[in-house]
Structure formats: structure tokens, C-alpha cells
Amino acid sequence: MSVIMMGFKDRLKELRSKKRLTQEALAAALEIPESTIRRYESSDDNTPRRERLEKIADYFGVSVDYLLGRTDDPAPSDKMDDKEARMGLAFITGGEDLTEEEAEYLKESLELFRRMKERRAKEREK
């Protein structure tokens, strides 16, 4: 017997309802037009761009895969563990081991860059 998973519109409605949010309140929290939320919840053909999907997933504390109906597990997948992150960042130094302080600095710098990039993208959308 196959189980039919819910799609994006159903997941969004369910998550919003569990938080007891109106479409208007969710739109305000996400800083998007209320009509966009209505459109997302009314049609299977209206799936947001990646950046907005990530923003919605972060807001509700779920994974993008859960929002899209690819999994029934709402928990966000674990990011790389610290060892994997340090290994990934190590290529910058030519393979030398990074100190904890260096690894933390690189992570923070990357997060800052991503936030600035997202802010610039929002400004261009306006």
C-alpha cells in the first residue's frame, strides 16, 4: 500500500494552522505579500523559489524536503558535523589543519556573506 505524501500547499497550510497564524500574519512574518501566501496555498503549481523555500522552512523549523512533500520527517537534516565542516574549510588553507578559532571565524564570515547576499537580492526584488 502506498502512502501519498502531502505537497507544498498542504504542508504550508498545516504548518500555518498549527501556529495559529492567518495568511496575513504569516505573510508579515516572512515579509512577503499576503496574496503570495494565498497563491501558495491554493495551487500545486505555485512553489516558491529556493531562497523563499528556505526562509519558510527556517521560519517553521522544518526541512525544505518536508515542505515539498519529499519526506514526512519535518526535522531539518543535520548540517555537517564540526569535523566535516572543518575538513571542508581546510581546502582554503591548502589542507593544513584549522584551529578551532580559524574554523569559527571562517564559518561566521561565510554566514555574514550569505546574509548580505540575501539582503542585496531582496533589495533588487523591490
Could you state the CATH homologous superfamily of the largest domain? Answer: lambda repressor-like DNA-binding domains
* CATH-level-2 architecture of the largest domain: Orthogonal Bundle
Name the poorly predicted regions. none
In N-to-C order, the SSE pattern is: HHHHHHH
Q: How many discrete structural domains?
A: 2
Shape: globular
Total number of β-strand segments?
Answer: 0
Protein name: Helix-turn-helix domain-containing protein
GO molecular function: DNA binding
Keywords: DNA-binding
InterPro entries: Cro/C1-type_HTH, Lambda_DNA-bd_dom_sf
Descriptive account of the structure:
This protein has 126 residues and is mainly α. Helix content is 62%, strand content 0%. The termini are far apart. The mean pLDDT is 79.
Write the layout of secondary structure elements.
Elements: H1 8-18, H2 23-30, H3 34-42, H4 50-60, H5 64-67, H6 82-90, H7 100-125
Helix pairs in contact: 2-3
